[in-house]
Amino acid sequence: MPPRASIESIQRSLGAQKLDGWLFFGFRGSDPIALRILGLEGRPHGTRRWLYLIPARGEPRGLVHAIEPGMLDSLPGEKTRYASWRLLEDGLAKLLEGARRLAMQYAPRNHLPTISRVDAGTVELVRSLGAEVVSSADLVQEFEARLTAEQLEGHLRSARALRSLVDEVFSLVARDVRARRPVTERSLQEFALRRFEEQGLTSDHGPILAVNAHAADPHFDVPQEGSAPVREGDLLLFDVWAKEKQPDSVHADITWCGFVGKKPPGEMARVFDAVRAARDAAIARVTDAFSHGDEIAGFEVDRVTRAKVDAAGFGEFFPHRTGHSLHQEVHGNGANLDDLETHDTRKLIPGTLFTIEPGIYLPGRFGVRSEVNVYHAGDRAEVTGPPHQEALVPILERF
């Protein structure tokens, strides 16, 4: 299987970034980024170390163990075999001859943990051979996080399916509450999972259905037994993510909130208004940047969003980043909108997809989040699952 990105395109980017090469390292499937970019997904991971260098100029070359000599056979370039640790180090020294500045899946001080796939000892070994190791974060985003036209179409289909599912779930709640039939967080999650199967969708985890105080937990996990009932007067948060079952499909990921009644209490409405204002400020900021051809980093969008939440008096109750990269994993490897959990200085680049999802969580009471997906279309920002949620959905009035 050929590399997902062409060697020539990678070499052009290496030259533009003044890098001598991109060094990939694998051990028992330790780096899924490398596997995907090199087109090694689906192949046996093996039990021995391998390294593969794509230089800025010239032929790639690799280093493989003598008992697993075919690990990199699908990739171009000469492969040298080693058996002992001494031969590994000697072979690596020859592999790196002439390369002084190398990108690896490494992030200084682990500021970007999604990129930090190479262990510290391997980085030390490469440095001991005279090479400077820099982060491959920008390269990863360019060759891993961009969507193909087919992936974008699949994402759009998934986004439409999830948006319809929100209405289905809220309608089910309305019918059951009116009929005084029992409905719980767990029964709603099971309904959503059945709809996934019927629509050819898949997810790494069931969606979040959370009422009241459970909605104040951003990563609430619906229990198998003893989940909370959903009753009139409750706030219901529905966070749902999924993708199509076809290979290479890309996720959609949205969150909507409803009130199981006709008119939400004033405080719930005020909290939602603050979340909506923060969400819309982030959308406006990326829209302005993209339409004017301006570069903007993930941390800058997070600052805009967080400033709105701070101004509304809820800053201490917004404990997570504004958004994350979306791709084949629900948390992708592109730039995140983050100046809280990390300081993500990566630029948002055309062809990538990300979430905007501010939230306010009042412990022991309730939480509100509004999540949309945004595609960087080059000269514009496309929110892929409109319409936006403009108010808490009054479930017993709307459905």
Question: Could you explain the architecture of this structure?
Answer:
The protein is of the alpha/beta class and 399 residues long. The protein has 2 domains: 7-144, Creatinase/prolidase N-terminal domain (Creatine Amidinohydrolase, Chain A, domain 1); 147-398, Creatine Amidinohydrolase (Alpha-Beta Complex), CATH 3.90.230. Helices cover 33% and strands 19% of the residues. The strands form 4 sheets. Strands 4-3-2-1-5-6 form a 6-stranded mixed beta sheet. β12 (359-362) and β13 (366-369) form a beta hairpin. It is elongated. The mean pLDDT is 96.
Secondary-structure map:
Elements: H1 7-16, E1 21-26, H2 32-37, E2 50-55, E3 61-65, E4 78-82, H3 85-95, E5 101-104, H4 120-128, E6 132-135, H5 137-145, H6 149-178, H7 185-198, E7 201-202, E8 208-211, E9 235-244, E10 252-259, H8 266-291, H9 298-311, E11 353-356, E12 359-362, E13 366-369, E14 372-376, E15 381-383, E16 393-394, H10 395-398
Parallel strand pairs: 1-5, 3-4, 5-6, 10-16
Antiparallel strand pairs: 1-2, 2-3, 7-9, 8-9, 9-10, 11-14, 12-13, 14-15
Helix pairs in contact: 6-7, 8-9
Biggest β-sheet, characterized?
6 strands, mixed
| N-C termini distance | 50 Å
CATH first level of the largest domain: which class? Alpha Beta
The number of E-state strands comes to: 16
The number of helical segments is 10
Average residue pLDDT: 96
What are the main properties of this structure?
399 residues; alpha/beta; Creatine Amidinohydrolase, Chain A, domain 1; Creatine Amidinohydrolase; 2 domains; six-stranded mixed sheet; five-stranded mixed sheet; 10 helices; elongated
